[in-house]
């Protein structure tokens, strides 16, 4: 899960059923070994099954409920190469299955990141500003897209979850690691063009 930088309260919860069919999924937190595993590829023949389609719906529901702008399957304790993301007004709802980054832009940008699996912390991470990614979408069709700005950050953050990496592993200057209260107090107003 990648947060918007101004996200407030973060609560963990047990699985809760919404309506008749949707479910909020419990989030794995740092220290849970599943967050450190390499996620397995999804068999393309499984993508259109009712079970996987419901899982994708539940991931979106969980992401929106928190609220976040991205969620990777290992964060809901399922070690498969599947991420969902979306940010109204910035980039569309997107499902990436078995994603591969095939191009990194040469420019690096630094942004604040946070993660639902790492409660209450923010830190600055430097990443390429542009990526091109190839994946399968939720219908099992080939997807090939180039992203910049917040979308590019989100793709890289979520794909890190598929190889057992957290944003704190990507921080080069740990002195920017900040608790949420202090982030609001000292840093939130800092110019943050991407997140
Ligand atoms: Zn995350």
What can you tell me about this protein's structure?
By secondary structure, the protein is α+β, with helices and mostly antiparallel strands. The protein has a single domain, classed as Alpha-Beta Complex (Peptide Deformylase), CATH 3.90.45.10. 22% of the residues lie in helices and 33% in strands. The chain is built from four helices and ten strands. The strands form three sheets. The protein has a five-stranded antiparallel sheet with strand order 3-4-5-8-9, sandwiched between helices. It is globular. The protein starts with 15 loop residues before the first strand and ends in an 8-residue tail after the last helix. The structure holds zinc ion. Zinc ion binds at residues 1-2, 115, 117, 157, 161. Zinc ion (ZN) is lined by residues 1-2, 115, 117, 157, 161.
Please estimate the helix content.
10-25%
Please tally the helical runs, counting DSSP H or I stretches of 4 or more residues: 4
Q: Supply Rg.
A: 16 Å
Write the CATH architecture name: Alpha-Beta Complex
Low-confidence stretches: 5-18
Order of secondary-structure elements: EEHEEEEEEEHHEH
First and last CA, distance: 13 Å
Strand order of the largest sheet: 3-4-5-8-9
- Would you identify the CATH H-level superfamily? Peptide deformylase
Quick one: how many beta strands?
A: 10
Integer count of domains: 1
Fill in the CATH topology.
Peptide Deformylase
CATH class division: Alpha Beta
Provide the residue-averaged pLDDT: 89
Bound molecules: zinc ion
Query: Which term fits the overall shape?
Result: globular
Q: Supply the helix-strand structural class.
A: alpha+beta
- Measured by DSSP, the beta-strand proportion falls in 25-35%
Most strands sheet: 5 strands, antiparallel
């Amino acid at each position: 899960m990648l947060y918007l930088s101004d996200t407030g309260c973060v609560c963990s919860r047990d699985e809760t059923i919404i309506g008749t069919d949707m479910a909020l999924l419990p989030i794995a937190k740092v220290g849970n070994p599943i967050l450190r595993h390499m996620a397995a590829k999804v068999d393309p023949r499984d993508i259109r099954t009712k079970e996987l389609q419901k899982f994708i719906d539940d991931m979106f529901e969980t992401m929106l409920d928190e609220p976040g702008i991205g969620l990777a399957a290992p964060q809901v304790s399922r070690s498969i190469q599947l991420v969902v993301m979306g940010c109204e007004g910035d980039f569309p709802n997107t499902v990436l299955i078995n994603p591969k980054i095939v191009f990194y832009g040469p420019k690096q940008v630094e942004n604040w990141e946070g993660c639902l699996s790492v409660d209450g912390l923010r830190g600055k991470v430097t990443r390429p500003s542009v990526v091109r990614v190839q994946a399968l979408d939720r219908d099992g069709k080939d997807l090939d897209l180039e992203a910049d700005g917040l979308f590019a950050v989100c793709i890289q953050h979520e794909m890190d979850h598929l190889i057992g990496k957290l944003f704190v592993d990507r921080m080069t200057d740990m002195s920017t690691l900040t608790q949420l209260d202090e982030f609001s107090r000292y840093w939130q107003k800092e110019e943050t063009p991407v997140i």
